[in-house]
TrEMBL record:
Taxonomic lineage: Bacteria, Bacillati, Actinomycetota, Actinomycetes, Streptosporangiales
SUPFAM superfamilies: PHP domain-like
Name under which the protein is recorded: PHP domain-containing protein
InterPro entries from the UniProt entry: PHP_dom, PHP_domain, Pol/His_phosphatase_N, Pol/histidinol_Pase-like
Gene Ontology terms, MF aspect: 5'-3' DNA exonuclease activity; 5'-3' RNA exonuclease activity
Native source organism of the sequence: Trebonia kvetii
Length: 274
């Protein structure tokens, strides 16, 4: 099977609506897709309604967390969507995302970019606003050549001139929340630049209920994938993979990285035990 467990729609910072994501998944020959928008599951109903025969949809979310004052991401799969702790936490994260984005736009205005909150709001639509929306507005204003250029110290990269921090739960607490709600917590791209999670921390998180790590991701080269696979085996963690597709924003394509069949079945089994 071809199993992509890390995909975004315009319910957060992807460019395609959930129905279009599903259409693209079918065209890419996927058998299983997890919709993992940032801090929301608002796109799931539309995605389910668009499912063709032969494609399975796994409900998920990529939760924004913090570790030692840095931003890190946690993928949560198959948890109870009505869990009150998760609902309260994600609502707070989404609200703070908006306040933060408004503050970043104000700083960009002071820097003479011409970017306005109205522009960013139009790009985000009903989705959870994030830095990629601001990056697209910056590119449209002509301040930068393309959205990727926004993530530098000059603009909205971590610690940059227009960067503003935001609220996020501590990683260990988020792991416990997902597991308590019957779900399967998996660390997202734990070796991505700026999002690195040390092996010792990963080992500690297994005690909080961590079930897996995302091994197969475009930020991980072959040597890193081998190291993470060995770490996963040593800690009895699931080794997942996904494209981290955001539509035209990153252009890598659904199914660019996938999860092995046996690891997927382990994940499903853990959710049933949740």
């Amino acid at each position: 099977m071809r199993i992509d467990l890390h995909v975004h729609s315009n319910a957060s910072d992807g460019t395609d609506d959930p129905a279009e994501v599903i259409r693209r998944a079918g065209a890419a020959g996927l058998d299983v897709l997890a919709l993992t928008d940032h801090d929301t599951q608002a796109g799931l109903a539309e995605a389910r309604a668009a499912l063709p025969e032969g494609l399975s949809l796994i409900p998920g979310m990529e939760l924004s967390c913090q570790l030692d004052g840095r931003s890190v991401h946690l993928l949560g799969y198959l948890f109870d969507p009505d869990d009150p702790a998760i609902a309260a936490e994600t609502a707070q994260v989404r609200d703070d995302r908006t306040y933060r984005a408004q503050a970043m736009v104000a700083r960009l205005a002071e820097l003479g970019t011409g970017v306005t909150w109205e522009q960013v709001s139009e790009i985000a639509g009903d989705g959870v606003v994030g830095r990629p929306h601001i990056a697209r507005a910056l590119a449209a204003s002509g301040a930068i050549a393309e959205p990727a250029d926004a993530f530098t110290p000059e603009w909205i990269g971590d610690g940059g001139r227009a960067f503003v921090d935001r609220y996020a739960p501590y990683l260990a607490r988020a792991v416990t929340m997902i597991r308590t709600a019957g779900g399967v917590p998996v660390l997202a791209h734990p070796r991505s630049p700026g999002y690195e999670i040390p092996d010792a921390v990963i080992a500690e998180l297994t005690g909080a209920g961590l079930c897996g790590i995302e091994v197969f991701h475009f930020d991980h080269d072959e040597a890193e994938r081998m190291r993470l696979s060995a770490l996963a085996r040593s800690l009895d963690l699931i080794a997942t993979g996904g494209s981290d597709d955001h539509g035209s924003f990153n252009g890598r394509g659904l199914g660019a990285d996938v999860t092995p069949d046996d690891e997927y079945h382990r994940l499903i089994g853990m959710a049933r035990l949740g």
